[in-house]
Amino acid sequence: MTLSLWSRISNAVRGERLNREIEEELQSHIDEAIASGRDPKEAHRAFGSALGTREASHSIRAAGWLESLLTDVSFGWRQLCRNKVTSFAAVFSLALGIGSCVAAFRLIDALLWRPLPISNSSNLYVLSRKMTGFEGKPVEDGHWATPDFNLMRDAVKDQADLIAISDAERTDITWFTDDDMEKAHVVYVSGNMFPLFGLEPALGRLLAPADDRAPGASPYAVLSWDYWNHHFGRDPDVLGHSLHIGNQTFQIIGVGPRDFAGTEKGTVTDIFLPLGMNSFANQDSVDWHLTFLMLKPGVNPATAVEPLRQHLSAVHRAFEAECSKCFRGATQASIDRFLNQKLVFYPAGAGISDLQKDYRRYLGVLGLLAALVLLIACTNVANLMTAQAAARAQEMALRISIGAGRRRLVQLILVQSALLALLASVLGAFFAAWSGPFVLSLVNPPDNPARLALPADWRVLFFGFGLIILIVLWLGLLPALRASAVRPVAALKGGGDPHWPRRLMRGAIALQVAFCFLVLFLSSLFVASFQRLQNRPLGFSTDRLLLLETVAGKGQLPVVWNQTAEALRAVPGVNSVAISRWPLLGRIQINSDISINGAPPSPTPAFFLNVSPDWLSTMKISLVSGRDFRPEDTSPGAAIVNETFVKTFFPGQDPIGRSFERGANQPLNKVVGVIPDVPYHNLREPSRAVFYVPFAEINDKSAPRVVDFATFTIHTAQNPLALAGSFRQLIAQSHNGLRVSNITTQLDLVRDQTIRERLIAMLAAFFAAVALLLAGIGLYAVLNYSVLQRRREIGIRMAIGSTRAGIVRIVTLDVFQMIALGGCAGVALGFVAARYVQSLFYQVKATDADMIALPTCAMLLSALVATLPAVLRALRTDPIEILRSE
Amino acid sequence: MAKSDALQGSLDLLVLKILSRRPRLHGYAIMAAIASTSGEVLRAEEGSLYPALYRMEEAGLIRAEWIKKDSGRRARVYELTAAGKKQLGVEESRWESVSLAINRVLREA
Q1: Confidence of residue A713 (pLDDT cuts 50, 70, 90)
Q2: Cβ contacts of A111 within 8 Å, gap of 6 or more
Q3: What is the pLDDT of residue A135?
């Protein structure tokens, strides 16, 4: 009974001609009526208002078009108002989908795609090198030594400019006295950065190539506009002020342009300093800053990049081969492996940051989940509209038979879906405006939040409009095609094809289930990953452990640090105090070569940490064998190692009493104790060899060495942060040069490790809940509609003695077939998607049985709940009543 | 949906009958003919006449063609097809039996 797709399309196209003919005929009728003496007004009225409008459209075509649109809008609005609950559900679910998509787009665009506010950003590249890492795995490093950078810069200066920019480092800044120390993001840049980026100062002057002339010769600082605004209220007198970092003093010479916040997306740079002012700048073996490359104007990137890369690669290799200090004591094999580097260029017009690297895939997953939820919501609404359109088939038929153009009907339906989409997008815009910054605020630890401009500019608007157009088409196209296929005779007779909308809606159910399953599947993988990571055994306690990260200007002797620890121990409510150079799972990790019995260093280095006696007991780390450090132990001298260290360097031996050197021909360290593996820098890391040495270090003349920073680890009896203020005061009042630079807890450091996983698990769970709810609503609506449609059939079946089970079967069988079909498709999609994000999982595999079982159960459960009302309705059908009413 | 079937059936019958006597009439003429021959008792509304015409055209009972009128406008005129003639016979005999039955009820009840 249904028309072929082709005749539907041709009807829609032919519609206007058809319409003109109908109109012509009716016009001739009216003429005839008037000619035979009928009142012209009365003759017109006989055809009703629809034709009146149509007739008017002949004389003033444009205005008529507008009028018809307005009519449709008001008609569509009345339709929406008539079904308040459905319309509200449709608008709300669409709004959630649109808002999520736009928020995801804002984040992805701001972090990954939006070009930096600089000139020629498309000509900007960043240099990186690929090599084989210590563990034999391929690694990539984007950091370079300044002398190497200088050589490379000079080598290609005819075609390109090289720019050095260090990572934004949270640094202690002092403005006037030592008491008002604070943290700011400091970046060291080569003097050519500001001019090459085409940036103009908001105040004073910016750094210039002349500021690179000699190491330590340009003690000047440029503030970013944002920092100037926040800290100085845009006070122009800031020029000439000085700031202190460690024992260096910098004079403020200018403020950068308003929108430039550095090249590191996600971090707002506060202070720019000249490259040469960092003591690393004249060291051959310290790779510490990024190297950017800006092609000169007029150089064609397509042809210039590869020769440049080869040229730079050769210069860099020569530098590394020259670098004598870099390879002290290493074997030839590891030198060769190290020299085997490949230099690569990446476009850097959108900036470069760790945040981009860390979150690229997470944001991709987020975008995918948001898009899937939007698709589910759209399918829901499309289903609703199909049901409505089916219910209106007779109305449509009447409209066509009295001469409404089919195009006009399509317009009516598209106007209605556009109304829905517009209402939803207004709500969605509010949701996106709130959720984008909210998600961003969860991205980093609270004390160092990620900062990213999220402007609602033409890029976001463009995306939003594109989205709305897609939604309108998706919502309206099928019902519109359906409407254009209405054949007045069949529909007016009450025939038509009753199965057509049901078939369509069943297909939509399968689609919805597939999407919903995909969302559930990915979510359960992310939630399980997060739970396993969070619950992994640590091997140390995080309970009531306060960490006072403390600095001491030019350094203090260990005895001063010990005295301070003693003073802290005397505070009421303190259980124990120990000192380590830096905390576990913090930002710092340092490795060292290990050589056994004077042999060349092993290919695998080990990581280390200086700790005081009692640090193990304060952290509740148990000894496997041997003893803890004693106050008289020094480094070099004694060492405690972990089990992986034993396996790596003393396989099959009792390590207690054996010794190792940190590099060839270094003093011996005797192993006094063994402890289990505890995570050192990263919760996800595989076990790595770690050794612990005493906090008290001595130099080669056995004199104690000064320590310039360390962390007091304090186990308290009560909430540790409650005492933080008094500890800070106590240290400040002792006037021994020590100052607290940061206060945190061991628990927060562990939590900070799982921020990404927590974020994605939280969002994935949210999307899963929404998807499940929407799919449930969709299922309910379709089943309910189909039971209503088949009332007659069900009544007859009951009348001729069908059992209840039989009724349930015919009502639900095809829907559950669709669920099974959609579920299978969802699993297949899930496996494909999981392959791309496998690296984000922790001890979870897509093929784990419970990862598939969980979403399946959730899906089936919500399907049962959603089908129950319709099934009950079917069972309550009263055959007598049905047969009587027909 | 069973709605006003009798009325629709009789409109079809009237149109078929009028076209069988006077072929090639346009819509207004059919309407006028129904009114005049019934002594102004029956009136076909425009809103039901044209749908009925299109329906019968699609069902193949009548066919239509455009003719040029003296005024320069085109008019669409209808005439019976062979199937329409057959249908007219069927409808007429059905009407007769129905009205006979109704008359009998009126007389005897």
Answers
A1: very high
A2: A265, A266, A355, A356, A359, A363, A452
A3: 62
User: Which among A523, A535, A536, A532 has a CA at the least distance from the CA of A762?
Assistant: A523
Sign of CA dihedral B91, B93, B96, B99: negative
Query: How much is the average pLDDT of A832-849?
Result: 84
Whether B26 and A32 lie within 8 Å, measured CB to CB? yes
Q: Do B55 and A488 touch (CB under 8 A)?
A: yes
Residue A320 has a pLDDT of 83
The DSSP bridge pattern shows strands A271-274 and A181-189 to be parallel
What average pLDDT score do residues A6-22 get? 54
ipTM over 0.85: no
> pLDDT tier at B74 (50, 70, 90 boundaries)?
confident
A701: exposed, middle or buried (C-beta count within 10 Å: 0-12, 13-18, 19+)?
A: exposed
Distance CA A285, CA A297 (A): 33
Residue A797, amino acid: R
Chain A neighbors of B28, CB-CB under 8 A: 28-29, 32-33, 36
A601, A590, A591: which is closest to A664 by C-alpha?
A601
Amino acid at B41: V
Q: Nearest CB to A28: which of B47, B55, B74?
A: B74
Contact A401 B51 (CB under 8 A): yes
Contact B26 A31 (CB under 8 A): no
Closest by Cα among B93, B105, B104 to B9: B93
- Inter-chain residue contact B47 with A402, CB threshold 8 Å: yes
Of B27, B55, B59, the CB nearest to A29: B27
Give the pairing type, strands A143-144 and A289-295.
Answer: antiparallel
Give the pLDDT score at A790: 79
What lies within 8 Å, CB to CB, of A717 at 6+ separation is: A544, A573, A574, A575
pLDDT of residue A778: 83
Q: Which two tokens stand for residue B23?
A: 């072929």
Element (H, E) at A609: strand A606-611
Rounded Cα–Cα distance for residues A274 and A211 (Å): 7
Beta strands A690-694 and A606-611 are parallel
Chain A residues touching B57 at Cβ < 8 A: none
What is the per-residue pLDDT for A435?
Answer: 87
Q: What is the predicted pLDDT for the residue at A187?
A: 94
Cα A29 from Cα A92, distance rounded (Å): 49
As a whole number of Å, the end-to-end CA separation of chain B is: 30
In the predicted model, what is the mean pLDDT of chain A? 83
Nearest-Å Rg of the Cα atoms of chain B is 15
The CB-based long-range contact list for A618-621 (8 Å cut-off, 24+ gap) reads A618/A545, A618/A576, A618/A577, A618/A578, A618/A713, A618/A714, A618/A715, A619/A540, A619/A541, A619/A545, A619/A578, A619/A584, A619/A713, A619/A746, A620/A540, A620/A541, A620/A543, A621/A539, A621/A540, A621/A675, A621/A676, A621/A678
Q: How far is CA A859 from CA A279, A380, A514, A862, in A?
A: 60, 16, 10, 5
The CA angle A111-A115-A118, to the nearest 5 degrees, is 130
Judged on CB neighbours under 10 Å (0-12, 13-18, 19+), A336 is exposed
Half-sphere exposure of A567 (CA within 13 A, CB side): 18
On whether the CB atoms of residues A527 and A854 are closer than 8 A, the answer is no
Q: Give the global pTM.
A: 0.73
pLDDT at residue A618, as a whole number? 93
Q: How far is A42 from chain B, CA to nearest CA, in Å?
A: 12
Whose tokens are 């319709």? That residue is A870
In the structure, what pLDDT confidence band is assigned to residue A63 with cuts at 50, 70 and 90? very low
Q: Note the pLDDT tens digit of each residue in A186-211.
A: 999 999 999 999 999 999 999 999 99
The whole-angstrom distance between B30's CA and the closest CA on chain A is 10
